[in-house]
Amino acid sequence: MDATLAAELADTDAIGQAELAAAGELSATELLEAAILRLEAARGLNAVITDLFDRGRERAAAIDASGVVRAGSAGPLAAVPFLLKDLGASLAGAPEAMGSRALRTHVAQHNAWIVDCYLDAGLVVFGKTNTPEWGNHCTTEPSLFGRTVNPWSPLITPGGSSGGSAAAVAAGVVPAASGGDGTGSIRVPAACCGLVGLKPRRARTSFAPDGHLLEGLAVEHALTRTVRDSAALLDAVTGSAPGDPYNATPPSQPFLQAIRQAPKPQRILVSTCSPFPAPDTDPGVVDAVESAARVFEGLGHRLETGAPSFDADAVADAIAVLHNVSNVRLYSFARAHLGRDPREDEFEPSTWVMIREGFTTTGVAYADAIGTVHSQTRSFAAGMANHDVFLAPTLVSPPPSYGVLDQPQGTTRAFFDVEFAHTGWTSLGNVTGWAAISLPLAVNADGLPIGVQLMAPEETVLLQLAAALEQELPWSARRPAGWVGR
Q1: Does residue 477 lie in a domain region?
Q2: Where's the Amidase domain (predicted)?
Q3: Going by fewer Cβ within 10 Å, which terminus of the chain is more open, N or C?
Q4: How far does CA 96 lie from the centroid of its chain?
Q5: Rounded mean pLDDT of 433-459?
């Protein structure tokens, strides 16, 4: 593979690369080899922690031999190189440490349902990306694999927990990579790395064959550079597996088709403030939100300043409890894998705080946390009764430095107080189950990306609005210092 062509392909999104394959200009194997060259050029980012090159080459060769792509019978993503987050995207026979030293020798025994969807769509998986231990942190600096470097600056976190995927996409290694979002773990990396990050609505995708995570707070999807790639990937994974505890209403049309249409006028509620105790929102972030609001107003949407009300203290308490119980469950998983009790030094210090608190969490406290999530969702929804969409910052601060969002604070609640002081509204997308998308609408005075977030009960309107902003406030020409396509 010619290195110049490999670099040029960094500028081509997933649909664009699939179109090259469908036109017979490049094969799946050639697209993969180009991506591998870009990955090797970006090793210093530490975004990919497991190489699956042989597996990817075997799959690409099989796609080429089948002829389905050139015959025009494949979908819009066929033959595209793709990376999996090393959490929530199990691939049978591949290492799966989930960022934890306790699972450093663990190998997945089955494919996740969503991974089968990716493979059915014709994506070519050739590696797994770095993630913090069990997705606990909105930064990616696990002691097992080391920190992932943000392509925009080595001084700021790429976010988490999908930080490895975000860094790989932001650097141009791949056009898209998988992610998961429990309190902002797709949207925060998207904001830190200048990407599109959609958290689908609850139950849009399935965690099968595993159970749903964090009582429904977590949802799987991807990091992309374009809105159309996010829509196409969502089409590929939309649905439910037999036996799922709940299902989402199917969309009336494919998301990729829907974004070609302008949405009807929306009633948009706008807030630039954090719902949690936090310093004042960064002025650059405020400007980015207000700029998006002006664009929407010019497109005929109705804007109003305000915010839905809910009990922020109760929400933070409930999220802390759900994470404590989730970490005890994963501790038990590690114990089964190791055949012994894991040691404290096999976990991150902040993870151990959650495990320790989880051991003493009562059934009543757990049930109360679930009840709080439901009641606060109703309060939030009531506050949005006269509006269709909520517009707010993704991060209320600039992308933070390393060593901020992963440190133990004595209690799990105190840990999340630090996180929420930076992330603001992101966790409400998870609590309510609403769809939410972060868009890279601006850069600050230091040249670092700023994400702006939209939330709504369903994805279609968000993707349509996002496509409009992509046209009015384009971000495709912005490239980080660590861009490999130079």
Answers
A1: no
A2: 30-458
A3: C
A4: 18
A5: 98
